[in-house]
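Morning, I've got a small favour to ask if you have a moment. You're getting the sequence in one-letter code plus the fold written as tokens. Thanks so much in advance, here it is:

===
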Amino acid sequence: MDGGGRGHRGFRRHIYVRDVSGIVTGEEKQRGEMLAQGGPWALSVMSLVLLLSQEVSAIEVPLDPKIQQDLKQPPTIVKQSLKDYIVDPRDNIIIECEAKGNPVPTFSWRRNGKFFNTGKDPRVTMRKRSGTLEISFRSGGRPEDYEGEYQCFASNDFGTALTNKILLRVSKSPLWPKEVLEPVVVVEGSPLVLACNPPPGLPPPHTFWMNSAMMPITQDRRVSMGLNGDLYFSNVLAKDSHTDYSCNARFLFTHTIQQKNPFTLKVQTSRKVAETTPNFLSPTGTDSSRMVMRGEKLQLECIASGVPTPSIKWFKKGGDLNQKVKLENFNKTLRIDSVSEEDAGEYMCMANNQIGSIRHSIYVQVKAAPYWLDKPSNLVLAPDENGRLVCRANGNPKPHIQWLVNGEPIESDSSLPNPSRSVVGDTIMFRSVQMGSSAVYQCNASNDHGYLLANAFVSILDMAPRMLGSKNQLIKVIENNRTFLDCPYFGSPLPELRWFKNGQGSGLDGGHYRVYINGTLEIKRARAEDQGTYTCVASNILGKEENQVRLEVKEPTRIVRAPEHQSAIRGTMARFDCRVKSDLTLPITVTWLKDDKPLSLGWRLKKDEDSLSIPNVHEGDEGTYTCTVKTEIDQDTASARLTVLEDASLSPSQSSVLPADRPDSPIDLEVSDPAERSVRLTWIPGDDHNSPVTQFLVQFEEDRWESGKWQNLSSYPGDLNSVILQLSPFVNYQFRVIAVNSVGQSRPSHPSPRYQTSGAPPDAIPSGLKGWGTKKNNMEISWEPLLDTERNGPNLRYSVGWRRKDIGEEWSNVTTVGAKHIVHDTETYVPYEIKLQAVNDFGLGPESNIIIGYSGEDKPTAPPTDLRVSKIDSTKVNVHWTPVDPSTVLGEFKEYRLYYWREGSMVKGLRVNKEKRTKGFYSTVAQPTGILTDLQPYSHYRMSMVVANNRYEGPPSNLVEFHTKEGVPDTPKFFKIIQRSTDAIHLQWDKPLEPNGILIGYKLNYQTVNGSRVGRMQMESFLPNVTAYTLRLPERAIRYKFYLAALTQVGAGEVYAEESPHFTNEVGMAPGRVIWNLTVEPNSNYANVSWNHNFPAGSSEFQLEFTLDSNGSMSSVPVNQPPIKLAGLIEGAKYRLRVYSNEYHSISSNVVTFETSAAYSKDQVDIATQGWFIGLMCAIALIILILLIVCFIKRSRGGKYPVREKKDLPLDAVDQKGEDGSFDYHSDEDNKPLQGSQNSLNGGVKESDDSLVDYGEGGDGQFNEDGSFIGQYTVKKDKDETEGNESSEATSPVNAIYSLA
């Protein structure tokens, strides 16, 4: 590298010293650059290019203890003190220097450039196996005597690493110089500055102003403290007269405050204070300049005098103030916390009042000490391999780069010549390295404002292959799942790895096998034939090593009969099925959950191999039950809900015999047998109220974190009343007990006395530890905080550790009380090892396992290229592209995301939706391909592709256009069937919304239907401009089913099916509504008719249509709910009957044929003409007349019938839900002989339990031939004496035909 003139500008002398550290002095630097200018370049540009082209990747050494134990490595500095190290004079001085290596490094020190013999100074000791110095002053001595510049060297057989120069200084807090301060006399309205001038401490003190009452001086727009500590008055008022203005200096290291003698301020008042224009008190003049270092805090100040008090405004020439700028101290101070190069420029402050204004310009110049662009890292190479170390830094001015080896300048004569090494500017190239050339290299980047020093070793390693994983592993995988067989290995040179199955054949790679660079074999979809023994063999020039993995492919675990939702009446048994099919070689575990919590089986609940039984169901059993079946490698779950119903049929006499109730609360809770983490709780059970106690629930409350909140601790069987409770440390407990029986829970008992457990370190490891980036240069580490009962002690906090994975750096640690920590200034998407540990005042908890997290992702920088298509079909196309370089993804590769949209249809005049759609392809092969499906036929498409990580998408690829082929059309837009007359059906339709090609016509198939019987299929064809057709009906009752499809050259599209209606109205369909199970029980002149349906209760009407076979006459009457009695039929006649929906005519039952029974023949003896029968009827009539007279007499005397009591009883529920989900509207009494009751056509039922007198007022009843009462009651409007929604309207003419069943 040609240093040019960059070394002649007076580098600070403490940066360059002449010693073995290799950080050269300023004079040596100039001499070295002169020599470099006179010598030839070490390599030409061409040779550099050739070398880079031959370079191989450095070896990543695994952290396996077996490898690390045998690995010989040069030293690495892992811990050191700060460059500028200020210490407290009251403490011992500790200068840190820690290093690792194999063999263990030895340490030495230099002080002020000379060897520091720590053994000759009794106050100085060096820690064992460490270079850390400890300087003790117990036996006397002054810390100031040890101020100076220190540097540590760590050496072993393979090289020497060194720390930064550590400038040790002792903190100072000098006293304020003694001075006599005269009173300050000033005229009202004048400006004033009270100087602070604090003593120069190390580090500088923090200043503030207070009065004699130790209260801060009030500051505002008029009075404020400047950055130098002075107190500024823009104008003085009479109220400012005080004798105790005191400046204070606080020294951070010694935690002391020094106070200056107070100022006395006397203000001379005047009748009128003259107004003045603004004038700057600080800074002075019209302009000033300021230099600030990159990354430091910039503070600019403008304080002005004037009457009235001026206001301050800030501007930046050439642009607005950015978001980094903060205005403080009443706009008098401009602050930028972390300055960067773009913050340089001219800043202007303007002070103005109503008299005038004034400006001041501050020119800000940003300089920069060196900072890393590419820090050199350790390099492990195998013999004959190539590599390089790169050291790139930036700064202002541009830093000078110098290389050292083992602490010596690389170009010095004392460094042995190395033909395999060459220095090209900021890079050291290594070519065909050999054993024995391991060393530690240092890169020193320096300019006028500081320096950087980095160590990076080059270790030459040769090692025969070694297997790092467990030997002869057994891997079990579910059939058809993807599986990975791991084979971690290491060797130098990097071994070649191959896989074999059952010790035969060639290496496995390709097909449904894939071998990763880390040795893992992926089987994309495990099949039964993949079962066997797999051998991985790693080999290099030093030998070979192998390992075996046994793969077993298992059948999946599945629940083949899942539990179903069910309702159970209280006191009955409920049963949930859970039948399982699984691999016979895998043991299974079946567990049940209730409402997502483990189900305690106890004595009542029974679990067998494939079901759960719940006897004597009560309200507490209601909930969602989940069956979970687990094996060691998979699981399956299924859930169902149990609803508990009350038994409405339970009579009062039955329910009053020994009624069960909730148990009484347990009493007399007693705490005994205290232990560190347990205690015995004893109680006396209360009365169980005729239902045995099945369970005791113990709850606790603690008063430290959630005072007053009762929480479940554990539950115990109902036959226990003394239990050992397992407790958590550092909790002040009190307990209560709840008894549970089949009815429910008791009230909680009174709380027990409190019991305090002692504290301990945390037992639990916080769960949910993960690390991910929320920005491209950070990583957020988060976890689930411990529960309050897991704290185990006060002041719970978390110790978080992280480090870059696989580069050997030391752990960084931080302690926080929150549940996350953000690591800033990370590289983009690099892996980190993360660990976590809970800590309280009693000590450290267990350390978590190390997990891998990643820093944030950035936008991918490269697009996929050469996007193209092939094999274009009507609905799909093959997509091909050239993948991106993985390094450009800048994150975890998620997918190649294809954006495609329909640009138009090739059918003229058809408008399309151009909304963009996406499809992802996960592929890492060299020539990826994918299939894009669900395209619209006969369309023009466009597409482009991006690569995506988890957060961002990269730039788009080239745009591709293609046209899909013609396909079959969609269904017609609509298909209407209108029955305009009794002899014809008119059909209408419209062309499809998506023709998917050029329409060439329509095809109509149709056939007759009669219940489940269908006729021969017939067909009609139409031109594309025909959208209507009329079909003549040979018979009115014939029904057809139609199938309509549109046609293109490719073929017929999806069929639109419709069934012809029964009447002349256009049919709408009610999805899912059906009528079934039509049954007819014929008699001589009437028939009982019933059917099932799933229409909503109370909101549907039906038409009952019956046709007389002899003459074809058809009758149709509206009815409500079944069952009904169809009267007025002809004796001995044959009828056809069906029921259909009054609203949806196409929803119909099947047609049922029945025949009424014949009347008795005339030659039979008519019983009505027999004398004995006439006499019997007269006697019965006389008895009935006498009973009626008695009833009227008793009623007039105030008597009541016993049936009046029955009227007040609640009626039984009549709506019962069927197994198929429909509702069956009938009473339990429907099939019994009816006495004094009747069914109306809408299915409503009246129970006539009272006297006819209650209904007979104004009644107009009459009896039919069969004795049924077909009149209508005049019902009382008493809500308590009515049932259902029966109508009180007058009887319609139809009701004259039908009597109530």
